[in-house]
Prior knowledge:
Aminotransferase-like; Aminotrans_IV; binds pyridoxal-5'-phosphate; aminotransferase; about 30% strand; pyridoxal phosphate; alpha+beta; D-amino Acid Aminotransferase, Chain A, domain 1; EC 2.6.1.42; globular
Amino acid sequence: PIAYVNGSFVPLSDAKISVLDRGFLFADGIYEVSAVLDGKLVDNASHLARLERSVGEIKLRLPETVERITEIQQELIARNKVENGLVYLQVTRGADKGRDFAFPKGDVKSSLVMFTSEKDIINAASAKTGINVITVPDIRWERRDIKSVALLAQVLAKQAAAEAGAGEAWMLEDGYVTEGGSSSAFILTQDDVIVTRKNSNAILPGCTRKAVVALAEERQLRVEERSFTVAEALAAKEAFATSASLFVQPVVAIDGKKVGDGKPGPMAMRLREIYVEFAKATAV
Ligand code: PLP
């Protein structure tokens, strides 16, 4: 596979970045993950809009325009012949002469790195079986709306999930679910209201979440953006998660207790189909 590093396309195994890169030293960087379907980028404008917002919030400048970044993503997909998979993109505040917390003085260029991976998102087995989630305390910082590469809390949460044989960790704060380690959390109440937490600094504004909410509302489905507890999720008809790498993923158990009948719910499966249709129709 080929990676992109600061203006060059190089074999992934030769792709290198300085040990002084601030992404490596301080997690001083932002990332994005876009899905690829049939060789095209899914909902990518939404991901790049979030990228622009995230970099702005940490006073980091993109080394390329969003238009150029899109071209690089597409060239990388073509070079790697990715039919179905993901494009990972990371921008960091570059490498200075040493390790200084304050921003580099003068003209240190930010680093831009991309690589791809193969993943058959549409036919993923877990979409048919659903996933179990565990709950963990949300120990992250207070600016979770920024898609920062500082992911240690999520690494630990998702490792705990993996060790418990679960597919995701739902993080809890003040008794409410914030979101999954790398996905947005949803439930469907007994009276058929789709509930997901309101965007704020407490969660990442998921691109898939945004599209699913809009697609549901267009179909006159009832959506409420508000917080919910684990008890409410366990009493719900259905639960599901959304992300660029999963689309819509049914959640069938939380901490070993069944949600609904313990099988993927019809609303989650319907929203998944609707999302796939949208993704295919709008991919570039
Ligand atoms: N929440 C968190 C913490 C994430 O890391 C992610 C994706 O990685 C999401 C939600 C889902 O966001 P998106 O739908 O934009 O992939």
